[in-house]
Amino acid sequence: YIAGQLPGSSIPGMFPNMLPFAVGQFNPLVMQPQAMTQQATRHARRVYVGGLPPSANEQSVAIYFNQVMAAIGGNTAGPGDAVLNVYINHDKKFAFVEMRSVEEASNAMALDGILFEGAPVKVRRPTDYNPSLAAALGPSQPSSNLNLAAVGLTPGSAGGLEGPDRIFVGGLPYYFTEAQVRELLESFGPLRGFDLVKDRETGNSKGYAFCVYQDLNVTDIACAALNGIKMGDKTLTVRRANQGSAQPRPEQENILLQAQQQVQLQKLVYQVGALPTKVVCLTQVVTADELKDDEEYEDIMEDMRLEAGKYGNLVKVVIPRPHPSGEPVSGVGKVFLEYADVDGSTKAKTAMHGRKFGGNPVVAVFYPENKFADEDYD
């Protein structure tokens, strides 16, 4: 050091704008807490925007997204613009838009398929987005209070069932109800939009549907898991509606495996009892121990008659009981409800499937009438 000067004091002619630093003054050489926070949350604040027209530039993208975020009520971090920075790759026609908050980046996910200079653009998470880390930083889904209609995004248009993440689901058995198709698709997560296409005159299903997931990251996972699965005498065709199927990324493989296992369970339920009959079979409702006591058994029978009678003309209730000798009895643990018509059985199945009974979700399927008539409850 120059004699008589303290470390950090000014040396004439050398870095005049950098030194000295007064007490409490901002020091650019030291990582500030705010900068550290911004770096830690950056992956969750960035948004990928694909399919940009050649005329797009950083300024036009920033202005546009600031305007639409304000219009839909997506600016949750206070007054001012939501966009901090924009980087554009002109060769590949995409941009990374950095938002000022994690919540605002999640709100921007609702803009997928919005028209930018006349062209629909993809709004996605970037490949470095880490859902598990992001979950601790803020909301990962768009707010349900966004005014998407203000920018022309409504269910059934660009923000609902249109855009690059719309999924085509073909090869559905004609007897599948809207609730059954929804239940199958929602194995992967909640839907933003869903439409089972029906004949205008008869109201019957045409055997295909369209959907869009709220979390666009599961689009390819759902397509890969469902495509090619056999449902009755049909084979499902599931792919993006406007392009060829894409393969899930390596980090999605575990999710894909779990989803495929879930689909197989759903498939078993549908194949066994998808075709409507007058008989509904309920499982996970009663245990063998509950059926041993005569008084308790009668109480269960009465409860079932009252509940099942709400949905139609109930003809008969059968609840197989364990044999006192301990001999095996088919159907123990199941409840069989016979109705006078299919309308009553369908309403009962729809209403009771998935309901919690004793902490367990009830599984309701149609049961073959000939087996029920023969007292074959296996």
From TrEMBL:
GO terms for biological process: mRNA processing; RNA splicing. Residues 45-128, 165-243 form the RRM domain. Keywords: mRNA processing, mRNA splicing, Nucleus, Repeat, RNA-binding. CDD domains: RRM1_U2AF65, RRM2_U2AF65, RRM3_U2AF65. InterPro entries: Nucleotide-bd_a/b_plait_sf, RBD_domain_sf, RRM_dom, U2AF_lg. SMART domains: RRM. It is found in: Nucleus. PANTHER family: RNA-BINDING PROTEIN. Necessary for the splicing of pre-mRNA. This is Splicing factor U2af large subunit.
